[in-house]
UniProtKB/TrEMBL annotation:
PANTHER family: CARBAMATE KINASE, CARBAMATE KINASE-RELATED
Similarity comment text for this entry: Belongs to the carbamate kinase family.
Protein name (database record): Carbamate kinase
Family annotation (InterPro entries): AceGlu_kinase-like_sf, Asp/Glu/Uridylate_kinase, Carb_kinase
Membrane-crossing residue ranges in chain numbering: none
Keyword list, A-Z: Kinase, Transferase
Pfam families: AA_kinase
Source lineage: Bacteria, Bacillati, Actinomycetota, Actinomycetes, Kitasatosporales
Domain Aspartate/glutamate/uridylate kinase: residue ranges: 1-276
Length: 307
């Protein structure tokens, strides 16, 4: 079975944790332990988030007196792909002796006219108090929004149109290689209509939407979205909270989910199932094997035929 895994950025750096290298390495070792069992019997492509990491690099870049201007988000996104991809690849090689593993920096084409550029919604970086967040917003020219537990920077998140290196990923899979790619949604670029020349843009593409597109382009059997909760829940965090265990795309869209957290995951899963007739599942990282085998998480399946 060919599986595309979307690994949440918060799974690699949990909320409230110090962004030290050792902390991220420990979290990556935990993630790889959960994924290794799946990788032994399946073709696996692993994508990952980068919200905490790119926010940290952006803050450091903005504060660096040696720079006349901070590095743009597309360049910082490439840096996070290299950093996280290397850590994942090394850990996967250790967990799967003899298996070829490649970490590939990939580029995601977006539309220059995407309205998302005028409405930043993608959370990056750490959580701040309201007061500190507003000070940083004024000082750095940031957009900020309320997230669980505090306030965070938000940046544009245009929709992915295509992934430049899909054919390369397909070739690697065909050779038996486990591929880590499309980190942080891929480096966001626009493509010149006539020449095809790629130009980086100031944005962070949602990694779940990119994972769904990649799974579609690779003709994957399963899109597996791993996060820090065991299921999708309706009315999450309220006394009315209920787990969603088996659902169709239409049923998912009948419910309301938080824009900055579960909403992109449910929408990405719904799109993949609708466009391909395949399966998608959402659940906790530690239960990855069980989710893929239908005994945990939220399964998103096609509509059953009538009659």
């Amino acid at each position: 079975m060919r599986i595309v895994v979307a690994l949440g950025g918060n799974a690699l750096l949990h909320r409230g944790e110090r962004p030290d290298a050792a902390v991220q390495q420990a979290n990556i070792d935990r993630a790889v332990t959960a994924l290794a069992a799946l990788a032994r019997d399946n073709e696996l492509v692993i994508t990952h988030g980068n919200g905490p990491q790119i926010g940290l690099l952006a803050l450091e870049s903005a504060a660096d007196p040696a720079l006349s201007t901070p590095y743009p988000l597309d360049v910082l996104g490439a840096q996070t792909q290299g950093m996280i991809g290397s850590l994942l690849a090394r850990a996967l090689r250790g967990a799967l002796p003899g298996r070829q593993v490649a970490a590939l920096v990939t580029h995601t084409v977006v539309r220059a006219g995407d309205p998302a550029f005028e409405r930043p919604t993608k959370f990056v970086g750490q959580i701040y108090s309201r007061e500190v967040a507003h000070v940083l917003a004024r000082k750095r020219g940031w957009h900020i929004a309320k997230d669980t537990g505090g306030w965070r920077r938000v940046v544009p998140s245009p929709a992915p149109e295509t992934i430049v290196e899909t054919d390369t990923v397909h070739a690697l899979l065909s050779s038996g290689t486990l591929v880590v790619c499309a980190g942080g949604g891929g480096v966001p670029v626009t493509a010149d209509h006539d020449t095809g020349e790629l130009t980086g843009v100031e944005a962070v593409v949602d990694k779940d939407f990119t994972a769904a597109l990649l799974a579609e382009e690779l003709k994957a059997d399963l899109l597996l979205i791993l996060t820090d909760v065991p299921n999708v829940y309706t009315d999450f965090g309220t006394p009315r909270q209920q787990p969603v265990l088996d659902v169709t795309p239409a049923q998912l869209r009948d419910s309301t989910f938080p824009e900055g957290s579960m909403k992109p995951k449910t929408e990405a899963a719904a799109r993949f199932v609708e466009r391909t007739g395949g399966l998608a599942a959402i659940g906790a990282l530690d239960a990855a094997y069980a989710i893929a085998h239908g005994t945990s998480g939220t399964l998103v399946r096609p509509e059953l035929p009538i009659g």
